Amino acid sequence: QAKYLAQIVVMGVQVVGRAFARAVRQEYAASQAAAQARGRSGQQSAATSSITGMSLQEAQQILNVPTLTPEDIEKNYEHLFKVNDKSLGGSFYLQSKVVRAKERLEEELNIQRQQEKQQNVET
């Protein structure tokens, strides 16, 4: 019976491994397609999402900022960071997500500024 159990476990791991690999390939393909659709700045944004591990949309949802304004980002970040302080009974995990969301949105603002500068130079 141990032999059959081991075979079942191995097969299960293989199935999960293949599904994970397929999901990663699909996510990468979707990311590339989205980047191509948005042009060069989209490629930078997709690369930043890949590096930070968080999409722009997810970061906006976490900090509850529908439009990217530095003031709203900072205000919502400060509030959510304080509310999730572990010493006040908050969650370190959520607090770290808030920090990562702020970092991701700041990177997006930098990408937008660079794109604006480049457009001003070209015109």
TrEMBL record:
This is Presequence translocase associated motor 16. It is found in: Mitochondrion inner membrane. Keywords: Coiled coil, Membrane, Mitochondrion, Mitochondrion inner membrane, Protein transport, Translocation, Transport. It is a peripheral membrane protein. Belongs to the TIM16/PAM16 family. The keyword tRNA processing does not apply. Residues 95-122 form a coiled coil. Its main location: mitochondrion. GO terms for biological process: protein import into mitochondrial matrix. GO terms for cellular component: PAM complex, Tim23 associated import motor. Pfam families: Pam16 (PF03656). The keyword Mitochondrion applies. InterPro entries: J_dom_sf, Tim16.
